[in-house]
Structure prediction request, 69 residues.
Amino acid sequence: MLRRVTSSTNLAILATLTAGLVGACTVTHRVEAPKEPIRVELAIKIDQEVRVRLDDDVEELINENPDLF
Prediction:
C-alpha cells in the first residue's frame, strides 16, 4: 500500500533537513589573548600651559604700559 505524500509531509521533511543543516553549520568563535602585549602610542601635543603663560605675560605687559597700543 502506497501512502500519498502531502504538502504538510513535504514541509515536515524540509523543516527536519533545514534544522539538521543549520545545526551542523554552527560558527565557532575563539577568544585568545594576544601573544605580545598591547602597545598604545599617543602623540599628544600639550600647549595650553604655554598659551596661558603667554596670555598672562601679555596682560601684565599691557597693564604696565597702557600707552603701548
The mean pLDDT is 77. Residues 44-69 form one domain. The CA atoms of residues 3 and 34 lie 60 Å apart. The first helix runs from residue 7 to 24.
